[in-house]
Amino acid sequence: MRLAYRVLQARWPGGDDWRNWGMVYRPAEAPSAPLSLHHNLDEFQELVQCLLRQMRTQSPSLEQADCILEGLGHVCRLLPEVHEYAAEGPESALVNAIEARVLGLERMGQHEPSEDDIRILAGRANRPLAQAVAHRLGVPLTPLTVRSFPDSETYVQIDALVRKADVFVIQPCTAPVNEHLMELLLMVDALRRASGAQITAIIPYFPYARQERMAQGREAISARLVATMLETVGVDRVIYVDIHAEATQGFFTVPVDRLQSYAILADYFRDKPFLRDAVIVSPDVGRARLAGLYAQALGIPLVLMQKRREAGGRVETTHVVGDVRDKVPILIDDILASGSVLTQVPELLKQGARPEVHVAITHPVLLPSSLPRLDAPWLDELVVTDTVLVPPPKRHPKVRILSVAPMLAYTIRGIHRGTSISPLWQADAPRNLGFYDQP
To answer: Which terminus of the chain, N or C, has less C-beta within 10 A?
Structure first.
């Protein structure tokens, strides 16, 4: 089979940093066939629907496909070159291979013969992360068809043999949360019906994690419901990264591996010249334990902020415990969604902190309301991981992204071999375990 394609690029509005982010393609043997769109822009439903609508109504050839981007040129473009890719297998396998090339992941790592039965599947939530994990392990993504019907129902089909295989499904449940969660459940169900030996759900960003208890009467405990659904469809093991409430682990009866990203983020700051004058800042009491891990890893003091939420979701900082005078704050948190944690920074500045604040966040949800807050002059950088996909239209110039792919690959290999993954909990894990080595 041969596919002809053109690379789809996207960027931060008004920026110059265009990034490969998908492709438009068709069978090379059928020049008049309708075009298909493969993208990593699930969160931008309006943009994607506009592309698909213009593709359907205009029915352009691949060479004339630029017309589908009418009105979207400030964030998307198609490169002019038409490429072809040929290989044996179903269309989804070719799409996987082309996507890896588009993302610059042509180099495949090595795996041992004993790892031939590893299968890695990815939904549509964060395919670049899944591709990076697969290439590091030397195991290409397993062909999988996931598509949406016109009435918004989701269809899933496994396009390769997975019988008696050790299967890992990578799917953070980010926006649109319910759609990605349903994708995950359907993938697990399809794998169970296809006789996968062991099915591990890798959910770097666990959905509904902030609804792990009843704060008021008559509320749903949504995180508990997600755990029940995963076990009901047949998940044998669950892996997640920096969940908001650690007690969520107790909702499961299957094994759960709770990974931490602090070592990756702390290592980023380890050699920075400002570190000798820095302090780790916890935004509230609930994050104090996480902040303590950062402070211990970097050997710098810990400062604690106390906050309260008022009507309308407004956050007010009531106390700052610790000395921040003439210090460079490194503010940490697990999730940045609306950006309310950034509204606490002015209180640090009032206490004498330097106006050169660094923020380290595991899950960059980055709702539209948070992006203007990154323009604050006192914010030097926002350092995040790729547990959550940050597409180019959300990549503010101050955002720095570190990958958890080496950590996930190490975890998959350890689980498959039956060896310990406890070295991941060490502060120097990224360097000791070769996270920065080429796959």
So the answer is: N
Helix (H, G, I), strand (E, B) or coil at 118: strand
Q: Which residue has the higher pLDDT, 106 or 241?
A: 241
Q: In angstroms, what CA-CA distances link 372 with 133, 318, 333, 368, 377? A: 32, 24, 19, 8, 11
> Average pLDDT of the chain?
94
Strand 379-385, strand 357-363: pairing: parallel
CA gyration radius, the chain = 22
Backbone dihedral region for residue 299 (phi beyond 0: left; psi -120 to 50: alpha; all else: beta):
left
Alpha carbon dihedral 428, 172, 223, 330, in 10-degree steps, equals 40
- Among residues 163, 251, 244, the alpha carbon closest in space to that of 206 is found at 244
Could you count the other beta carbons within 10 Å of the beta carbon of residue 16? 6
Look at the block and give the residue holding tokens 């062909």.
143
- Residue 324 CA to residue 369 CA, distance in Å, equals 28
CA distance linking residue 189 with residue 193, whole number of Å? 6
**Rounded Cα–Cα distance for residues 408 and 239 (Å):** 9
How confident is the model at residue 313, as a pLDDT?
A: 57
User: Residues 199-220, buried b or exposed e (16+ Cβ, 10 A)?
Assistant: bbbbbbbbbbbbbbeeeeeeee
Per-residue pLDDT band at 306 (split at 50, 70, 90): confident
Average pLDDT of span 386-395: 96
Task: Spell out the long-range contacts of 316-321 with Cβ–Cβ below 8 A and sequence spacing 24 or more.
Answer: 317/344, 317/347, 320/347, 320/348, 320/351
Does the pLDDT at position 310 exceed 80?
Answer: no
Write out the DSSP string of 213-253. Answer: S-SSTT---HHHHHHHHHHHHT-SEEEEES-S-GGGGGG-S
* 405 token code pair: 């792919």
Q: Taking residues 214-241, report their average pLDDT.
A: 94
Query: In this structure, what DSSP letter does residue 425 have?
Result: G
| Local structure of 79: helix, strand or coil | coil
